[in-house]
Amino acid sequence: MRNDKLSIQSMDFAVSIINLVKYLKENKEHIISNQIGRSGTKYP
After folding, report:
1. Alpha-carbon distance 26 to 12, whole Å?
2. Rounded distance, CA 31 to CA 44, Å?
3. How many CB atoms lie within 10 A of CB 25?
4. What span, in angstroms and rounded, lies between the C-alpha atoms of 35 and 8?
5. Residue 33 to residue 20: CA distance in whole angstroms
6. CA angle 44, 33, 29 (to 5 degrees)
7. Which residues, 6+ apart, have CB-to-CB distance to 40 below 8 Å?
8. Burial of 21: CB neighbours in 10 Å, binned 0-12, 13-18, 19+
9. What's the whole-model pTM score?
10. pLDDT above 80 for 42
11. If we measure between CA atoms, which residue out of 35, 40, 33 comes closest to residue 15?
């Protein structure tokens, strides 16, 4: 992985999105969590 500022910020953003998705799934918000997960990460 590259260590430039943009790469680090992008990784931090993706990790934040994944944590949000986990939180939403724990609270039974599956539809919106799937949409956020797909749009906020490279996850297909």
Report:
1. 21
2. 15
3. 14
4. 23
5. 8
6. 145
7. 13, 14, 17, 20
8. buried
9. 0.72
10. no
11. 40
d(CA 25, CA 8): 26
Q: Where are the domains of the chain?
A: 5-40
For 28: left if phi > 0, alpha if psi spans -120 to 50, otherwise beta; the answer is left
What confidence tens digit (pLDDT) does each residue in 15-39 have? 898 898 899 888 898 888 888 888 8
* pLDDT of 41 over the 60 cut: yes
Taking the C-alpha atoms of residue 12 and residue 19, their distance in angstroms, rounded to an integer, is 11
Residues for the chain: how many in total?
Answer: 44
